[in-house]
Every structure is written in structure tokens, then in C-alpha cells.
Write a structure and sequence with these properties.
The chain is α+β, with helices and mostly antiparallel strands and 424 residues long. Helices cover 36% and strands 19% of the residues. The protein has 2 domains: 266 residues, Beta-lactamase, CATH 3.40.710; 91 residues, Alpha-Beta Plaits, CATH 3.30.70. Strand 7 and strand 8 form a beta hairpin. The C terminus is likely disordered.
Amino acid sequence: MPILRRILLAFLVLCAAVPAARAAGPSLLFDPATEEVLSQDRAGEPWYPASLTKLMTAYVVFQKLKAGRLTLEQKIPVSALAHSQPPSKIGVPVGKTVSVDFAMQALLVYSANDMAYVLAEAASGNVPAFAEEMNREAAKLGMTGSHFVNPNGLFDHRHISTARDIALLASALLREYPEYGHYFSQPAFAIGKRKLANRNSLLRQMKDADGMKTGFVCSSGFNLVATATRDGRKLGAVIFGANSGKHRADLAEMLLVDGFSRPALSHPKIRSIQNLATGAIVPTDMTKTVCKQKPIAIAPSKDLGGWGISFGNYESPVTADMALRGRMLSRSGMKLSGTPGLIRLPGKAGFAAAMWNLDRESSLAACASYRAEKAPCEVLTPELFAQIATLVPDPPPPAASAAAQGSDGSKARKAKSRTKKKKN
């Protein structure tokens, strides 16, 4: 009877695990020490990395620390731009300073969007310059499917990566900067008398877990890079596009447990996985699945300004958004500095996939480049934007997101007393 019971329980566990065994997005199980791949599913497919971006932010900052251009004790200021970032955030007032160490803890334990900007501005002077450094370092690491626009991972059509690339980045962090490993395993982050638990719930769920970083925006779903060590062997898992924070942690644990059960044999390297060509496919949009807000946001007419470009008019916002995502990931779109989005056109003319906040020269050059790629493109003037603003009323604001963008998709939770006893 006990044997039959065990068999029955094992069967039920297997059946229950099947629906949750796959994320909506790619996944990868790897050995960060050898960069070997134990298993993978669509690991070269583009995805929105969300706050997994902060691993690259940390990588660039660690380089500055190593070079002596920053120190952990150094006080760095909070700018108005950094303070304006949406949650998750710490909310330090404009003009105040924080130490680099404080900002790094907030970045990697609590996933603070404002501290990502504070660190970027301290490291490179401004965010665009920091993003350029992020992309240079990504290229050196062989992250051929990644392009970074900002240091916190908040949604941008051009801000993408792949599970393959994120695994390369995680491996580089663990290999090159072991002295900073405590930031990824730290159970809680203290702000005065408050203690905020690490966003990575796998640290509390799996005894072997020891890192690394969560990510969430509505378009990406719930992402996670998770590491665990058992009997001296460390493995890592990348999860993209899970349906919830719990689903994400469960998927990572399943992959890691499976990996530890396998013998340490030779496997293909992470770099052997081919990234799909940028722009070949558009990353999946998880908004309908994981957020309560409307899936497609229309730009308020008051935000339109400068010169711009249009990629055509479409009957529905869904079709226009698909066109925009594709155009932004083309060679011509990746480095444009304007604001991409959808514009509601006067009357029943539909929706334009467009970009604004460009100057005249950039608009003309961009359209020339797109046309060379045989893609439609029209230059939009400031006068046209002004006309749209007078003829098209702004849509109602979108419903509040189900969770803070850039977080683990849930409200911050206080660290439990048992968390205080857990070693970093």
C-alpha cells in the first residue's frame, strides 16, 4: 500500500506540473562556471528583459568600481530624472545623496528604478551615455541579441534581450565579480527601521537558492534569473514570460532541481545557441495575461512634439502596435532617440504607428533609411502634431497596472524575522 501510494503521488505531482512546466516565453538552464547548457527552450528568441536589465547596469557599475572611478562609500546625487522614475522605487528626494553601496542594494535586492538612474548618471554622466556603455559591454560579452535603452528595464520597443544573452551576462557577473555576489543573495534591504525583502521569492522557497534577479513589466510578464548551489555545484536558470511571480519561481525551481539530478556531463556552450536576427520576429506582448490595464496605450496628444516619423496608419491600435514593434527593431530604428508610440488620428482615420521628439534632420535621415529598407515612412512636422492635439481629445488614462513595473509584480513585503537570521 505505501508503495502504491508513493507511485500515485508521484503520478499526481507529474500531472499537476505539466500545465505549469512551460513559461509563455523562453527558458534556459545553464552552468555559469562552464557556460554549458543543460536544457533550453527558444533561448535565442527576443524578449523584453524588464528589470533583468539591472544585471547589466550592475556589470557596468562593477567595472567602474574596479577601475576606481566609483567607490562603494561615494555619495552620489538623486536627480529630478531619477526621482521621476515610476515604482518600484525608493523615493529619495531630489538633491539628496546616497552611497553607491546603498544604491546597489536598492537596485539588486529591491529592484529600485530610481536608483538605476542614480547609478547610471554617476557612472557615465547621463543615461544615454550609460546606455551606450551597456551596449558596448553587451557586444564584448557576445550578447548579439540584446539592445539596451535605459538602465532599469522599463518598457521601450527597442529594449530587448534573449535568454541566451542573459545567461552569458549572469555567468560573466559571477565569474568576474564574485566579491559582489552578496548583492544577489541578500535576503533583505534596510532603509532606516524598515526591512524590505528581496524581490526574488525563490530565495525563501528553495533552500539551495542563492540569487539572482527578478524582472517584470506588463509586456514581458514575470522574468527571473535564478541561481542555486548544491554540493559545491552552481546552476543558473533564466525564465521569461511566466504568468505570475509564483509561477516564475516554480519554473526556476523545477529547472534547477532537474539540473542537479543530472550527472555533470559535457554539454553545448551557451554561445552555440543562435540568436534570431533582430527584427526577425516581434517579442510576445504579455500585457493581456499579466496586467489589468488595457493592452495598447495611446499617446496623449499633449505629449506629442518636435519632429517625427510615421510608419503608416492602421484601423486598430493592435495592428498599429505590431507595426511599430517591428519598425523599432529594424536597423534603422534601434538607435533613434525619439519617443515611439501610437497616435489616435482625427475622425475615424485610425491609428498611426509613429515616433516623435526628434529634430528635423533626424526625421529626414530616419525616413530615408527606412525607405532604403523598403519600409513605409513619412516625416511629421511640429505643426501637424499641433493640429492633432487640437482635433483629437486625449483618451482616458489607462487603468492602474496590476503591479509595479520593474518589480517582481507584487507589493513590497517586509522581511520576516526569520529572514534576519539568514546569511547573505
